[in-house]
Automatic annotation (TrEMBL):
The keyword RNA-binding applies. It comes from Halobacillus naozhouensis. This is Transcription antitermination protein NusB. The lineage of its organism: Bacteria, Bacillati, Bacillota, Bacilli, Bacillales. Signal peptide: none annotated. Belongs to the NusB family. The keyword Transcription applies.
Amino acid sequence: MKRRTAREKAFQALFQIDSSEINTEEAIEHVMDEQVHDAFVNQLVHGVVTNGTEIDQWIENHLENWTFSRLARVEKTLLRMAAYEIKFTEDVPSQVAINEAVELAKLFGEDQSGKFINGVLSKMM
């Protein structure tokens, strides 16, 4: 599975986890349908869930005129994924993580989501 597709699947799983009482494994199963499990999807989802408190605080520290609790669920999920990739993975260049989050924001978010995501993540660099 291409990494772009894996990020989309991870986003969908994390969004479900944040939106409902579903557990991590169920969320991954649900978004993967009949597809073979992907190591990168698992890494992203489990990494964000495991390091969630630290990631959320790191994001909160870089928001201007916003609080973390005010963020829309789409933006919050995308920021968490990209922050995880930037801070905890060594095989993904930070700029790639930012670009991928911006592209996913254009796909799943509002008109200004991509610009917002880019701005916050750029401050985190």
